[in-house]
Amino acid sequence: MPRKLQLHPEALREGAGAAVAVLKLLANEDRLLLLCQLSQGEMNVGELEEALDIHQPTLSQQLAVLRNEGAVTTRRDGKNIYYSIADHSVLEVVAVLHRLYCPE
Predict the structure, then answer these.
(1) Which CATH code, of 3.40.50.300, 1.10.10.10, 3.40.1060.10, 2.40.50.90, is assigned to 17-101?
(2) What is the pTM of this model?
C-alpha cells in the first residue's frame, strides 16, 4: 500500500498555476531531454544538437519555448549562444523525474 503524503491542497492552490506551467514545459519529450541535458551545465546549440540528436528547426523551436517561459537563460559568446537552466524549480522537477524514470 502506498504511503500517505502530508500534503495540503489549500497550500497547493496558491502555487498550482506555476506548477501547471512547469509541467506543461516538461510534457514535450524534446524539451524534457533539453532540460535534462542542461541540468549538467551550460551548452551551446551545436553541443545540444550533437548530444541529443535533435535537429533544426525543432531544436530552435523548443529552446525558444523554454526561453520564453523563463526556464532557460542565454549568454552570447562571439557567434555562440549558450543556454543554461534559469528556473531552480525546473531543475528540481527534472531531478525527481530522473530519479524516478532513469534507472542507473
Answers:
(1) 1.10.10.10
(2) 0.89
